[in-house]
Amino acid sequence: MMHEPGGVQMAKHAALCLMLLPRFLLAALMLWLLDFLCIRKKVLLKMKGRQDSPDDPPVCVSDSNKMFTLESLRAVWYGQKLDFLKSAHLGRAAPNTEVMLVQERRRVRILDCIKGKRPLILNFGSCS
């Protein structure tokens, strides 16, 4: 297996970041808006001296449970990156990954298991 030079890898990483940035910023904006709306509602209710109506869900915004945090932004970035780099995409051909035939104890490609025009069914369950 050949390794790419550092400059090529860096360029690929930079291109990936540029492609993911708009999606990430939109998700970050949504998290910030959720926090802003919840905090605004809590402040307005306190200013009016009212409590939430029974129909409204409880607003529990504090410093410890905000949506717009460094940890949540890291999770969003990681999730966006995983989603972008996955091999299966809606509307495209399925990836032909390697699987283990349990009974025969050998590795094959998924599409090697197709028999004629019959549909191929994969069972991802577990046995105990």
Automatic annotation (TrEMBL):
GO terms for molecular function: thyroxine 5'-deiodinase activity. It comes from the Eukaryota. It holds the Pfam family T4_deiodinase. The keyword Hydrolase does not apply. Keywords: Membrane, Oxidoreductase, Selenocysteine, Thyroid hormones biosynthesis, Transmembrane, Transmembrane helix. The keyword Membrane applies. The chain crosses the membrane at residues 20-39. GO terms for biological process: hormone biosynthetic process; thyroid hormone metabolic process. Responsible for the deiodination of T4 (3,5,3',5'-tetraiodothyronine). PANTHER family: IODOTHYRONINE DEIODINASE (PTHR11781), THYROXINE 5-DEIODINASE (PTHR11781:SF4). Belongs to the iodothyronine deiodinase family. This is Iodothyronine deiodinase.
